[in-house]
Write a structure and sequence with these properties.
Strand order of the largest sheet: 2-1-3-4-5-6
Number of strands: 14
Bound molecules: cobalamin, iron/sulfur cluster
């Protein structure tokens, strides 16, 4: 069969990072089939175009995966493909929770011929074989011979052939600049962020989160060796094409087992498999100084921390009382001391939030080392404990909010403010954290740091600003550049001035020496 795996676009970012599930299922497809991949974020297509593509390419089976926020688009695409007579199977967190919706068993239209519930590593080959025989069933659940749920082990993780996968659509370097940038330093002709998983599962069960329900509270890890080999493969590819590769460890809580994380990071260092990486780690796990040393020495550059709120009452309400706002500053300083920065995520519209929560949060953020704050609204995702609580309390204002997705819009009424007030708080958060003044302040506060780090923070902030204020197209970028011209001029001037001076030991060199010393201490 010719199989197409398709991920709908998210309407925000274009080609930021590919989705791991597509590469994973491609690697797990039984021999004898050809698998094509389309990520709508890199190759946007509407319903008519995808139906035409399926006909032109003589596709026999289509697999679609989507999060809740993209499900409406996923259904529209699935409908268009099914109308051509080609079978559609769906998987991922949304249809796992609401399989009846996808299969049209809830009174609505049918969108999928079959649905894979939960992790599909073991069910995908069965689906493909059944489809090839024309015997596709409606539901595939990850169960053992006795019908008991079975979570796939990650010990025999497939090798994803990164050396040969077509990643052209995920190059973040503009085409026009590729040949020039290939010659800069070790080469910047390509820059890609690649998702890699080292483990699955998180036992914490935060009320709004899908992960504990979906992946289970049993945590499973790949072997260190298989992760290290994957990083080496990615590094080799980047070197070969005179480009750069960064890794997003997509584990929900990369340090959930600190001992194991340390052992993985030590093995990465020992194998010389360091790449720049980002990972999600909860604040309570970042108390360990040795762990932070290892993060820095193994290439860790950014850590995503779900801070959610600076109000302990809010955190308790959503079962995240293990977050201690009193230690946030220390955690961030510990990271910043090693030039590792944080993406700090906050949720507004929680039950104890009142008007002014954005400014209260920002007044704390401003006292921390500069990072990348992001702001969202408490969202009841299907089948989460939060959804059930709000449903029982009759507080859902848009119980099927995914059927008409609206970015940054609440689907329930908060307790101590109105929906409109909550929306205004999010807007305030983004507007003030990413204003030209805030960006200038972030760069200035790092005056004692190497120029490279300051440029890094500045560029990352410009990109993150686009999450709330979409920056699609050249005009939008030019406007933002004009607004931030003072900071840009300052950084450029410094770069030119430093080159002119040709200092015998520039600050970047000093920082590099420091990192090397840390490395050798860890290796010892
Ligand atoms: C990486 C990631 C992202 C990336 C983007 C995705 C990317 N390019 O990879 C970033 C950081 C941008 C992101 C953002 C968001 N994310 Co996110 N993200 C993840 C994360 C951590 C990993 C995804 C992953 O690769 N998992 C590993 C793969 C192997 O698992 P999988 O995708 O589930 O695939 C398996 C099965 O589901 C199944 N499967 C999946 N698709 C298909 C398709 C077919 C045909 C079949 C047969 C099977 C199948 O098979 C796979 C193998 O077992 C997950 C949590 C998690 N651990 O999954 C959250 C998660 C997917 N994100 C989530 C959310 C809510 C968001 C945001 C909305 C958060 C926010 N408030 O802004 C945004 C939306 C972003 C946007 N604009 O698109 C939720 C989704 C819940 C839901 N019901 O939809 C999750 C589950 C986390 C959570 N806390 O609940 N995210
Ligand atoms: S710590 Fe993160 S991944 Fe784990 S349950 Fe809470 S929000 Fe979800």
């Amino acid at each position: 069969m010719r199989i197409l795996l398709y991920n709908p676009d998210n309407g925000v970012t274009r080609n930021f990072m590919p989705h791991l599930w597509m590469f994973l299922l491609q690697s797990l497809t039984p021999p004898g089939h050809e698998v094509l991949l389309i990520d709508g974020n890199a190759k946007p297509m509407d319903e008519v175009q995808i139906a035409q593509y399926v006909r032109d390419e003589k596709i026999d089976l289509v697999g679609i995966g989507a999060m809740t926020r993209m499900i409406a688009k996923a259904y529209r695409i699935a409908d268009a493909i099914r109308a051509t007579g080609v079978k559609v199977v769906m998987g991922g967190p949304h249809v796992t929770e609401l399989a009846d919706e996808a299969l049209g068993r809830d009174g609505g239209a049918r969108h999928a011929d079959a649905v894979a519930l939960g992790e599909a590593d073991e069910t995908w080959p069965k689906m493909v074989n059944d489809a090839a025989r024309g015997e596709l069933k409606e539901i595939y659940a990850p169960v053992d011979e006795t019908g008991k749920e079975r979570k796939p082990s990650l010990k025999q993780y497939p090798v994803i052939p990164w050396q040969s996968i077509d990643l052209e659509q995920f190059n973040l370097v503009p085409k026009a600049a590729t040949s020039m940038l290939q010659k800069v330093g070790e080469g910047w002709g390509t820059f890609r962020i690649i998702p890699v998983e080292s483990g699955r599962g998180c036992p914490y069960g935060c009320e709004f989160c899908t992960v504990t329900g979906f992946f289970g509270d049993s945590i499973r890890f790949r072997t260190n060796e298989s992760v290290v080999n994957e990083l080496l493969l990615l590094k080799a590819r980047a070197r070969k094409e005179k480009g750069q590769m960064a890794v997003f460890f997509i584990d929900d809580n990369f340090a959930i087992n600190v001992k194991r994380t340390k052992s993985l990071l030590r093995d990465i260092i020992a194998a010389g498999a360091q790449v720049h990486w980002v990972a999600q780690i909860s604040a309570n796990l970042l108390r360990d100084e040795e762990l932070i040393d290892l993060i820095a020495a193994s290439g860790g550059k950014w850590v995503f921390i779900g801070m959610e709120s600076i109000d302990p009452a809010n955190l308790k309400d959503v079962n995240k009382g293990f977050n201690k706002p009193g230690e946030y500053a220390q955690v961030l300083e510990r990271l910043a001391k090693r030039n590792v920065y944080a993406i700090t995520s906050f949720i507004f519209g929680m039950d104890n939030d009142t008007s002014g929560v954005a400014e209260r949060t920002l007044s704390q953020v401003r006292t921390w080392p500069p990072g990348l704050p992001i702001f969202g609204l408490l969202t009841p995702l299907p089948a989460t404990p939060l959804y059930k609580r709000l449903e029982v309390a009759g507080r859902l204002t848009r119980p099927k909010h995914w059927q008409e997705f609206i970015p940054f819009a609440m689907a329930h009424t908060p307790l101590k403010m109105s929906i409109e007030e909550a929306h205004a708080e999010v807007k305030y958060g983004w507007a003030h954290a990413y204003s030209p003044e805030a960006l200038a302040q972030a760069v200035d506060s790092l005056d004692d740091q190497p120029l490279g780090y300051r440029i890094n923070i500045f560029l990352a902030r410009l990109c993150f600003r686009g999450i709330y204020f979409p920056m699609m197209g050249k005009l939008a970028w030019m406007k933002v550049i004009a607004q931030n011209r003072r900071t840009i001029f300052k950084l450029v001037k410094e770069a030119v001035f430093r080159r002119g001076l040709q200092r015998p030991r520039d600050p970047q060199g000093v920082a590099y020496e420091k990192a090397e010393t840390q490395d050798s201490r860890i290796r010892a």
